[in-house]
Amino acid sequence: MPASQTPTSHADPRLPTRLPTRGRGQCRFRRPGVPHAVGTLLATLALVTAACSGGASAAPAASLPASSGPSASGTGSRAPSPTPAAPVKLIVGLGYIPNVQFAQFYLADQAGYYRDAGLEVDFQNKIDPELVTLVGQGAVDIGISDGTSVIPAVSQGIPIRYVFTVFAQFPSIVFAKAASGITTAADLKGRKVGIPGKYGSSWIQLQALLAGVGLTTADLQLVLFPDFGQLAALEQGVVDAATGYANNEPVRLELGGEKASVLALPPASQLPGPGLIVGAAALNGPKKDALRAFVTASQRAMRDIEADPTKGVDAAIARIPELATDRPAQLAVLQATIALWESDYTRANGMGAVDPALWERSIVFMASLPDKLLAKPVTAADCTSTALVPGP
After folding, report:
1. How far is CA 83 from the centre of its chain?
2. Tens-digit pLDDT profile for residues 123-164
3. How sure is the predictor about 228, in pLDDT bands with cuts at 50, 70 and 90?
């Protein structure tokens, strides 16, 4: 299955780019780990078929019980106040490296949005492939994973569903120095292009980008950088362009004083980016209401950060104090991340909305690739659910 890299777990923890992962097995989010055999997203996705339970821990009631009325004795005395219900515990899987790209989750926690929703949240950082497996098994209640990892995982029988779109615009891109003259995908023909490997979300994106102009990867001079050293190679002139993430390498390049040229997928060729996933059984399990509350609280924090990005930076620094050493860079990365949260579809249907047409197109495209990423046919309904998405 494809393991892709995503912007959150890159080599430079201070300048994260997406959800972390790497490896080539199944789902993605880039970075650490050995690449999987069939595309990485989110890294070493060891997609293990397992029965999915409703959640990682028992789910107490999510709301406080109604207060009691007068006592039955008729004496007018009131019954003692009920004991507040214990919060519902949720294990939340984020990308491999804690960073500013997860600011909305940090803010929702620190601002009390989760607490007020009756939740007790435990963040755990894992590579994408591991998260996909753990969510499918019910050991992690909800996590973030690349959509292009979910599709092959579901085709292999992993019982997960994508329930909330975090990156409404696919973050994987091809970037180059503006001075290179590369401004369109057609300009890549015959050029040296650095990639971490032939797997993952960045590999899928490159093929989709080229297909839009009638090219294939055979039309390029591919240069492999297994340790994700494409940015340094481009800066040194070893390659003309490279794959990366819109909220990572181009930002770092420009912070270094070099204007970047970014080639992103056009709207008609978009792929499903990183979003929240849950186990299929959890959609009707005892924690369903708690999971919906988590999604709603996280969406609220995303809107707060859209309105004032400094809130997100502050929350990330509170969680990861070392980020304070380079606050301007953290703000730049977060602003580039925020720009990917919305699309025409989510603006019309609500932040986090899952676009079934985009998923169907992506499944058809991925099934057509020579890598044979899908073990069996799947549909958008097999991979996604709108049960937990808040209204517009």
Report:
1. 38
2. 999 988 899 999 999 999 999 999 999 999 999 999 999 999
3. confident
Angle (nearest 5°) at CA 341 between 282 and 310: 110
Establish how many alpha carbons lie within 13 A of residue 248's alpha carbon, considering only the half-sphere containing its beta carbon: 35
What is the Cα–Cα distance from 207 to 199, expressed in whole angstroms? 11
Encoded tokens for 285: 């399990």
Closest CA to 369 of 39, 28, 32, 19: 39
> Cα angle at 27 between 273 and 196, to 5 degrees?
85
Q: Are 55 and 137 in contact (CB under 8 A)?
A: no
Handedness of CA 183, 189, 193, 199 (dihedral sign): positive
Q: Are strands 275-279 and 260-263 parallel, antiparallel or unpaired?
A: unpaired
Q: Write down the domain spans for the chain.
A: 88-168+272-375
pLDDT, tens digit, for every residue of 301-339? Answer: 999 999 999 999 999 999 999 999 999 999 999 999 999
Residue 337: alpha-carbon gap to chain centroid: 11
For 74-85, the DSSP string reads SSSPBPPPPPPP
Query: Topology of 88-168+272-375 in CATH?
Result: D-Maltodextrin-Binding Protein; domain 2 (3.40.190)
For the record, the structure tokens of 365 come out as 């495209």
- How big, in percent rounded to 5, are the helix, strand and coil portions of the chain? 40, 15, 45
The label of the residue with tokens 């989760």 reads 114
91 three-state secondary structure: strand
- Residue 360: CB atoms within 10 Å: 14
Structure-block tokens of residue 32: 């650490």
Q: Which residues pair with 30 in a beta bridge?
A: 20
Contact 105, 301 (CB under 8 A): yes
Across-strand partners of 78? Answer: 70
Tell whether the torsion through CA atoms of 365, 26, 352 and 95 is positive or negative: negative
Q: Find the angle CA(387)-CA(103)-CA(386) to the nearest 5 degrees.
A: 10
Q: Give the global pTM.
A: 0.80
